[in-house]
Design a protein that fits this description.
mainly beta; Jelly Rolls
Length: about 180
């Protein structure tokens, strides 16, 4: 008589997909303006998720371009308070250009050059060296970094010394309803 197979329950897991979110018009790409820093100053770029957004941000890919002839250091921070003097980037768009009207992100991409304000709160999760005249491309995080309402994803650019440098930051992310939010 054949033995009965031990049947284990199968757990079904939904894995977020950048492609699916792009098709739905929820995947965004944005870039900072030109970031200038050095001489004791740093530059900052990031995404701020407003406290009343009602969405979670799923970080996918970031790139950092170094237009200078010297290397610099980039620090990646989660939920740090951004500098007080920032500019809002208007170079943000959904990646699906076939959706009409184009959706607008709830998150706000901001940046600052020549900043001296120290980062407060948050966690510096890792640093990267960005080599001269190059672009550093992060691995796809596939949404594994999730920023809830009131949080932020920040990148600090700082020189190794006092030389003046120039760079830009590009971020990609998608947004989904925050199920614990009261503003659904």
């Amino acid at each position: 008589m054949p033995e009965k197979a031990n049947k284990q329950p199968i757990e079904v897991v939904n894995v977020p997909s950048p492609t699916l979110n792009s098709k739905l018009g929820r995947y965004f790409i944005g870039k900072t303006g030109l970031l200038n820093f050095g001489g004791g100053y740093y530059a900052w770029g990031g995404i701020v998720n407003p406290i009343d957004s009602g969405v979670n941000l799923y970080i996918d890919i970031f790139t950092i371009t170094n237009y200078s002839t010297q290397n610099f250091i980039s620090e990646i921070w989660l939920n740090a308070d951004p500098p007080k003097k920032t500019a809002v980037s208007f170079d943000v768009t959904p990646t699906n250009q076939a959706v009409s009207p184009p959706p607008k992100p709830k998150a706000v991409m901001k940046y600052a050059s020549f900043s001296t304000e120290p980062m407060t709160k948050g966690v510096n999760i890792f640093d990267r060296i960005v080599t001269q005249n190059s672009t550093l491309v992060s691995d796809s995080h596939n949404g594994s970094i999730i920023i809830g309402p009131g949080g932020s994803f920040s990148i600090i650019l700082r020189p190794n010394g006092y030389q003046y440098l120039t760079g830009t930051i590009v971020l990609t992310w998608w947004e989904e309803k925050n199920e614990s939010s009261v503003n659904m």
